[in-house]
Structure formats: C-alpha cells, structure tokens
Design brief:
By secondary structure, the protein is α+β, with helices and mostly antiparallel strands. It contains one helix and eight strands; from the N terminus they run H-E-E-E-E-E-E-E-E. A hairpin with a 5-residue loop joins strand 7 and strand 8 (124-130).
Length: 131
C-alpha cells in the first residue's frame, strides 16, 4: 500500500481543521484596538491628567489623531495594525513629543505605555495610561 495516498490527505485534513483555531488566536493575539478615540487617564512623569483623543481618521495604515493632553492641543497619528501612537503637545514655552505602544488585553481594558521628550528640558520621561 502506498502510504502517501492515505497520509497526505489525512495530514491536509488535519491542518485544514486546525486553521480556524490557529488563525483566530493569531488575530486576537495582536491586541490592538482599531480606535483610540476617548478619554484616557494618564501619568506623565508623575503628572496625572486626561489625554482626550477626539478625532481619528478612518483610512490608512497609520491614521491622524487630534485632541488634547493636560488641556493643551495635540496632533499625531495612531497605527492600528501595530499599536503604535505618536503625538506632539505644543505650548508657547515648550514642545513635547510622545511615543507609545497600545495594547488591548480584553474587550474593556486598553493601555498605553511609552516615553515623551521635552525639548526645553532635554531628556526622556516615561508615561502610561488606560482607557
């Protein structure tokens, strides 16, 4: 008996039956929300406040965002396929650039963590938040 006539179809059937399980887990494992619009509680170098993202574009691999942080306006982008977010906070006396990764561990918990730089006080400072 030629084992290939039995073995190959059996293996292919097994792989086909496993593919929904494997791919459904891979899709869930990325953990990146499609939208970051909303109010976030944040801590930036031990200053606590609100990051409010009010607008997000609907197309593109990375989508423009706007809103406010600590009451100051921000502009930037969010990449829903990688979970990366970047935005700039500008005031008359300083400019800060924020860069973070966002993850979604379940349907109700979204977190971000990263660094920001302050060009008037050179250095990198940590920040994190949740929504």
């Amino acid at each position: 008996m030629d084992f290939r006539k039995f073995y190959i179809p059996t293996v292919m059937a097994g792989l086909a039956s496993l593919s929904p399980i494997v791919f459904s887990q891979a899709a869930f494992a990325d953990g990146w929300p499609t939208s970051v619009v909303g109010d976030w509680s944040i801590n930036a170098d031990n200053y606590t406040g609100i990051l409010s993202i009010t607008n997000q574009a609907t197309t593109g691999n990375c989508r423009t965002i706007s809103g406010s942080i600590f009451g100051d306006s921000l502009t930037g982008f969010y990449c829903p396929y990688s979970g990366r977010i970047n935005f700039i906070r500008r005031r008359i006396n300083f400019t800060q650039v924020y860069s973070a990764n966002i993850s979604q561990t379940n349907a109700s918990t979204v977190t971000m963590g990263g660094l920001f730089t302050n060009y008037e006080q050179p250095g990198e400072y940590s920040f994190f938040g949740s929504k």
